[in-house]
Amino acid sequence: MTLSVIRIATRKSALALWQAEHVAAQLRAAYPKLIVTLIGVSTQGDKILDAPLANIGGKGLFVKELEQKILDGTADIAVHSMKDVPVELPAGLQITAILARDDPLDAFVSNQYSCLAELPPNSIVGTSSLRRECQLRAWRSDLQIKTLRGNVNTRLAKLDNNQYAAIILASAGLKRLNFSHRICSQLTLEQSLPAIGQGAIGIESKIDADEINAVIATLADATTTACIRAERAMNQQLHGGCQVPIAGFAVQNNHELYLRGLVGNQNGKHILRAEGKAITQNAELLGLQVANDLLKQGAKRFLTY
Q1: How many CA atoms within 13 Å lie on the side-chain side of 207?
Q2: What interhelical angle do 14-30 and 210-217 show, nearest 10?
Q3: How far apart are CA 81 and CA 36, in angstroms?
Q4: Positions marked active-site
Q5: 162-212, pLDDT tens digit by residue?
Q6: Radius of gyration of the chain (CA)
Q7: What are the CA-CA distances from residue 268 to residues 32, 61, 108, 246, 262 (Å)?
Q8: What is the DSSP string of 227-285?
Q9: Gap between the Cα atoms of 145 and 164, Å rounded
Q10: How far apart are CA 264 and CA 243, in angstroms?
């Protein structure tokens, strides 16, 4: 191997740095002579914290600046939470490897209550996700759902300052930052179907960076990759983004994938669900099948194009 250095573009939040360091550690373990460095980047999503993501451009705001670092040659790869990666990538870039998925479920975090059912009527619950808001309202229409932005530490601090009775966060992020003890309970798949790609880390690079891609590909997990392919294919067919509540979660059993999909409106009064199975090799076709099922049920009226 002639490759001697890999430069990783990453956001500067504690969780993003953990993910980048996790990838770096795996690369160093597999290639002891390889020098791996991190390049911290402040993205628009990190800078604009006073508005819901859906109002300022969606989760793509967390990846654009990282992608630009790859395109201009400042970095070789970027590490992302797959739930933040839009289905359409800039020309010349690809998701080269997806690591084994961690816990995909949403976590209920509170200093007073142990689960969603225990919350008193009209309790204030914090989340930045329309997907979570939609499903929470379907279970508890009395709750006051208020926007919660910022990194994990910031969100926990707002809870501790009694701004919310409870907040909903991704379990994987809490566990990665050693906040497992803050998880009071986890929402079930029926209560809160996860975001597409939730719990998975992806590595983006140039399509034509052959040597770099060969190295990165060794970190890929086949099972997670197949599941994410199905989920993202569903999202692409729906033309979904951060502006509409969409959820999708796939699991693999033996050589078969099982995908659940959901589209709804923000108030949770109308939620459409679909599911399907296919052999692993047909991951994208499964995603299309579930998306088309949702569209046949009338999902288009919830979607923004």
Answers
A1: 6
A2: 90
A3: 19
A4: 84
A5: 999 999 999 999 999 999 999 999 999 999 999 999 999 999 999 999 999
A6: 19
A7: 51, 26, 18, 12, 11
A8: HHHHHHHHHHHHT--TTS-EEEEEEEETTEEEEEEEEE-TTSS-EEEEEEEEEGGGHHH
A9: 9
A10: 11
End-to-end CA distance of the chain: 45
CB 41 within 8 A of CB 65: yes
Domains (ranges, CATH) in the chain? 1-99+200-220 (3.40.190.10), 106-186 (3.40.190.10), 222-305 (3.30.160.40)
Q: What is the pTM of this model?
A: 0.91
User: Token pair for residue 77?
Assistant: 């790869």
- Residue where the block lists tokens 């628009």: 44
Please state whether 35 falls in left (phi above 0), alpha (psi between -120 and 50) or beta.
beta
Tens digits of residue pLDDT in 26-42? 999 999 999 999 999 98
The Cα–Cα gap between 233 and 277 comes to 14
